[in-house]
Amino acid sequence: MSAEDSAGAGGAGHLQGSARDIDSFLEMLEAERGASLNTQESYRRDLKKVAIFLGGKRISLRQAAAEDLRAFLGRQKDAGMAARTVARRLSTIRQFYLFLYTEGWRSDNPASDLDSPRQGRSLPKILSEKEVDALLEAARRKEGFEGARLVALLELLYATGMRVSELVALPQAAAARDPQVLTVRGKGDKERIVPLSEAARGALKDYLAARADILPKGKSSPWLFFSRSSSGHLTRHRVAQLLKALAVDANIEPTKVSPHVLRHAFASHLLAHGADLRSVQQMLGHADISTTQIYTHVLDERLRRLVDDHHPLAKGLLDPS
């Protein structure tokens, strides 16, 4: 019997209690930390997995002991979960139990001594400048509203390094009067200013003209990239789908292309052309510069491969005499 079946057979009450505590935790995250809906859902998914595992043992999240939480993390590792995923779930567990302890709902914190899994430092995937150019060329070959929107999405992602969630949530007013910069609302509801390139401004202007033509007469939308979705604007998932379809047209492996990969490309290409790390940090909206420093490692790795592949010493092509 699976953990889910076991929990359903005898742990329904424990799951209900766990669900109430999860809701209280998420309410705190929203009220005190300004956590976005996406962040809250990520925490909910992780905690629900823990609750289902504990429900199989007929205990709730609030009743768990340190050994129960270690057993959950061990099960994750045994199931082949990536160290990064296990580490994220551990972080969620630590924050949740600190919340229970702070609220006085537990007299101890069973997560305080849990060990983090070892993680290799993975470098972000990026596209080359040539591949980004190929994507743009493929987008410009498309006509009408769909083509103008695709070029604008691509140019804005690559010119600003915005997260796709920030892009799709841009209000229509953000693009008024041919803006030189965009005000972006990022994680924790923090605002930052990002400059627009001439190419991005041109793409935005063309899109706005096509947008005005496609909107029904007398209708308007507060969103820059409106759609018929429940939110009223393009979803992150839809943007990812559009980019993967575009990758096929550009003869690029679709698995290489995503909105976040374009964010990585923005940062790496800026640094490669001499931008300073602090400016890139501000444009990406990273709270800590150590997060931005990963892109210097990307460049170091590219330079190492360049030497390995092309330097004569690396291939023994120089005369040792």
From TrEMBL:
<comment type="subunit">
    <text>Forms a cyclic heterotetrameric complex composed of two molecules of XerC and two molecules of XerD.</text>
</comment>
<feature type="domain" description="Tyr recombinase">
    <location>
        <begin position="122"/>
        <end position="308"/>
    </location>
</feature>
<dbReference type="InterPro" id="IPR013762">
    <property type="entry name" value="Integrase-like_cat_sf"/>
</dbReference>
<keyword id="KW-0131">Cell cycle</keyword>
<comment type="function">
    <text>Site-specific tyrosine recombinase, which acts by catalyzing the cutting and rejoining of the recombining DNA molecules. The XerC-XerD complex is essential to convert dimers of the bacterial chromosome into monomers to permit their segregation at cell division. It also contributes to the segregational stability of plasmids.</text>
</comment>
<dbReference type="GO" id="GO:0007059">
    <property type="term" value="P:chromosome segregation"/>
</dbReference>
<keyword id="KW-0233">DNA recombination</keyword>
<feature type="active site" description="O-(3'-phospho-DNA)-tyrosine intermediate">
    <location>
        <position position="295"/>
    </location>
</feature>
<dbReference type="GO" id="GO:0051301">
    <property type="term" value="P:cell division"/>
</dbReference>
<dbReference type="InterPro" id="IPR002104">
    <property type="entry name" value="Integrase_catalytic"/>
</dbReference>
<dbReference type="GO" id="GO:0009037">
    <property type="term" value="F:tyrosine-based site-specific recombinase activity"/>
</dbReference>
<dbReference type="InterPro" id="IPR023009">
    <property type="entry name" value="Tyrosine_recombinase_XerC/XerD"/>
</dbReference>
<keyword id="KW-0963">Cytoplasm</keyword>
<dbReference type="Pfam" id="PF00589">
    <property type="entry name" value="Phage_integrase"/>
</dbReference>
<feature type="active site">
    <location>
        <position position="187"/>
    </location>
</feature>
<dbReference type="GO" id="GO:0003677">
    <property type="term" value="F:DNA binding"/>
</dbReference>
<protein>
    <recommendedName>
        <fullName>Tyrosine recombinase XerD</fullName>
    </recommendedName>
</protein>
<dbReference type="GO" id="GO:0005737">
    <property type="term" value="C:cytoplasm"/>
</dbReference>
<keyword id="KW-0159">Chromosome partition</keyword>
<feature type="active site">
    <location>
        <position position="260"/>
    </location>
</feature>
<keyword id="KW-0132">Cell division</keyword>
<feature type="active site">
    <location>
        <position position="286"/>
    </location>
</feature>
<dbReference type="InterPro" id="IPR050090">
    <property type="entry name" value="Tyrosine_recombinase_XerCD"/>
</dbReference>
<dbReference type="InterPro" id="IPR011010">
    <property type="entry name" value="DNA_brk_join_enz"/>
</dbReference>
<feature type="active site">
    <location>
        <position position="263"/>
    </location>
</feature>
<dbReference type="InterPro" id="IPR010998">
    <property type="entry name" value="Integrase_recombinase_N"/>
</dbReference>
<dbReference type="InterPro" id="IPR004107">
    <property type="entry name" value="Integrase_SAM-like_N"/>
</dbReference>
<comment type="similarity">
    <text>Belongs to the 'phage' integrase family. XerD subfamily.</text>
</comment>
<dbReference type="GO" id="GO:0006313">
    <property type="term" value="P:DNA transposition"/>
</dbReference>
<dbReference type="InterPro" id="IPR011932">
    <property type="entry name" value="Recomb_XerD"/>
</dbReference>
<feature type="domain" description="Core-binding (CB)">
    <location>
        <begin position="16"/>
        <end position="101"/>
    </location>
</feature>
<dbReference type="InterPro" id="IPR044068">
    <property type="entry name" value="CB"/>
</dbReference>
<dbReference type="Pfam" id="PF02899">
    <property type="entry name" value="Phage_int_SAM_1"/>
</dbReference>
<keyword id="KW-0238">DNA-binding</keyword>
<keyword id="KW-0229">DNA integration</keyword>
<feature type="active site">
    <location>
        <position position="163"/>
    </location>
</feature>
